[in-house]
Amino acid sequence: xxxxxxxxxxxxxxxxxxxxxxxxxxxxxxxxxxxxxxxxxxxxxxxxxxxxxxxxxxxxxxxxxxxxxxxxxxxxxxxxxxxxxxxxxxxxxxxxxxxxxxxxxxxxxxxxxxxxxxxxxxxxxxxxxxxxxxxxxxxxxxxxxxxxxxxxxxxxxxxxxxxxxxxxxxxxxxxxxxxxxxxxxxxxxxxxxxxxxxxxxxxxxxxxxxxxxxxxxxxxxxxxxxxxxxxxxxxxxxxxxxxxxxxxxxxxxxxxxxxxxxxxxxxxxxxxxxxxxxxxxxxxxxxxxxxxxxxxxxxxxxxxxxxxxxxxxxxxxxxxxxxxxxxxxxxxxxxxxxxxxxxxxxxxxxxxxxxxxxxxxxxxxxxxxxxxxxxxxxxxxxxxxxxxxxxxxxxxxxxxxxxxxxxxxxxxxxxxxxxxxxxxxxxx
Length: 428
Fold this sequence. Notes:
Elements: H1 16-25, E1 32-33, H2 44-59, E2 65-72, E3 75-86, E4 91-92, E5 99-100, H3 105-118, E6 139-145, E7 150-155, H4 162-166, H5 180-188, H6 202-209, H7 227-239, H8 243-255, E8 276-279, E9 282-285, E10 313-314, H9 316-327, E11 331-332, E12 335-336, H10 340-346, E13 363-364, E14 380-384, E15 388-393, E16 398-403, E17 406-407, H11 414-423
Parallel strand pairs: 1-3, 8-17
Antiparallel strand pairs: 2-3, 2-16, 3-4, 5-10, 6-7, 8-9, 11-12, 13-14, 14-15, 15-16
Helix pairs in contact: 2-11, 3-7
């Protein structure tokens, strides 16, 4: 997972105001269906290659099923479901089924943070310890004893800033999936990964995390970690609301994201796809726990832990609305959540010195890494641990999502193959 950038366009001073106004007027207020793919300059024949790819994956028992969603110019060009939501029961997958989106939660958390930044609740380069005192005077791991997970640490060169949390440059590692040392240190301190940790409380665990060592000095390099769980707790501190309530009232309800939750209401349980896994070259339903002991059915629980890094479940349609809001420079469904300038800041490469293209919410396609893929410069993207993938391309005005739910899969490349087939079907 990588890549992201600034896509502000330089225009002549005389025409700037008119051009920006005209551009804003062209943003789709809502996502609506296209009568046929050709209406948004896709080749229906070439899009058929996506069908063939997914049929092959399912026939070879490499994935249980998948839902595909393509939006161009605010119109749905392709929305299909393939395979099963439960391979044991042979339950057909439906287009509106709900998936565990894991790390796709991070971008939503970043949106919440930047909405509060716009309200003046904090500054990006302020220390986290100003709002969570337990993060004061951080230390960096020096030695680690694998026998008992004991360690020594030395003072860090600086405090962690909120910007560093947003860009995974804080030095915080990941529970359950991070480095060997920190998986052990976090497990001993009972710091969760955020997936299926329903009985914990965010404030308690983040305060405990603040007293543990860092993997490296803040700002020194990029390390994927529990940063967005800390940010979720900061949203609670700044807003005086529980994180789940903030997301629902300030983001999900205004955007019309009616199926996105940490813990699903009972009337949506039947639409949650079963979590699967690879076993001896075949896809089977997952019986064992995932990551740090997570019950695969965790979205159906009544939990109290709201993980900003990994806890949400959603549909392709809901997440597309979230992405379209960014393509619209902060507005969707007649509601403005961010200003155009804040969206431009979010889409600016924040880590040019660290050689990792990442903005304040997504991985970015920049001038520096553009030769590696077919994405347009300015495209933002990420994915989730259970093999969900998305991107949004401002230049092509294009959103793509492919969702399946499979644990520890060998077939992660489905996202890249889907991307290739999508761009090769553009016909304008």
